[in-house]
Amino acid sequence: MFTLKHLDLFDSLETPFYFYDLEILNKTLEAVKKSAPKRYHVHYALKANAHPDLLKIIKNHGFGADCVSGNEVKRAVECGFDKEMIVFAGVGKSDKEINYALDHNIFCFNVESIPELKVIDELARNKNVKANIALRINPNVDAYTHKYITTGLEENKFGINPYEFDTVLEEIKKLPNLNFNGLHFHIGSQIGDLKPFKNLCSRVNEINKWFIQKGYLLPNINVGGGLGINYKEPDKEAVVDFESYFKVFSTSLELMPQQQVHFELGRAFIGQCGSLISRVLYIKNGINTNFAILDAGMTELIRPALYQAYHKIENVTSILKIIPIVIGTKNQQLIKYDIVGPICESSDCFGKAVELPETKRGDIIAIRSAGAYGEVMSSQYNLREKINSYFL
Length: 392
Ligand code: LLP
What we know:
This protein is an alpha/beta fold. The chain is about 30% helix and about 20% strand. It has two domains: about 25-270, TIM Barrel; about 270-390, Lyase, Ornithine Decarboxylase, Chain A, domain 1 (Beta Barrel). The protein is built from twelve helices and 16 strands. Helix 4 runs parallel beside helix 5, helix 5 crosses helix 6 and helix 8 packs parallel to helix 9. The longest helix is centred in the middle third of the chain and has 19 residues, at about 195-215. The model has no long low-confidence stretch (mean pLDDT about 95).
């Protein structure tokens, strides 16, 4: 929830930019620490937001890092994450990326295919080291989320399918530079209901038992990330309910006492603390539609265009400056606007028929819950400037 202090800051800066509320971030990180049982190890998924200043805060709270590219591994190392707590996943790791991670002796490679196992073994042999690996398993569990961010179904490109397990074990025996020490799962992102995680636990139990029967009691079980946030009402749920989330795993996972549980949370850590702040450039009245044209577009936040994602949109100027004056004299009238950006694409739209108080050129507009997969996915399409970010 913004105050006049925020509005003064926003008004003094060139828009658009990302704004991160560090109080929300710190509260979130404390909540994770408080609700995660002792043998749970949480790695922050850098893909959600890799801003060095934010990463340092997350690192200082003692979390590990989940990376999906060599550059993310590099960023995690540079920001001081403990190498013993860096995991490296991704369906297409290049030799250069693998070599970089081997040189930094990271905690684990989450391996997605038999050819990748062979390449990591060969590169580790060249360096005369052993690579710690977990097998990323495709559990065929539906996350019931947008199809572009569903990863744990057989039709998805991620992970090794159960019918390949016997072959994989045969291969691993032939690869002496691998240290096979875990199983990894990740079913998707923005999962709002806890049921898919419960289903995941059942599959993890079955698969873990299968490996134990084959003589592999693996010390690390990584259940990935995916916990969703409340995009509709960000102020009501600024901090995600981590306690209920971890409870699903505590009650449903059947592990051996020596097995450690790993998580890779991105959005739930960083989503609610960030907003995209922009200014209204023009109000354009159409026959049936009023357009509020912002100075931010899909280049700064692509989620609505790419996943038809909902983000709450607020006119901060009118909430804080106009409404308090008007209230008491007459009811504030809401007007419907299509909130669009300046990019030459019709998909450059943050929301259709969004009800806002009367909106004018120069008003500050906040697009909420944009801390995750916002700034990191921004682009310079249309030769847009690289977006700045500020903290409070
Ligand atoms: N682990 C793996 C292997 C992943 O692929 C992901 C996300 C995560 C962890 C973290 O998931 P989270 O806790 O953040 O849900 N750009 C999309 C989201 C893509 C998610 C990709 N993988 C969006 O804006 O919704």
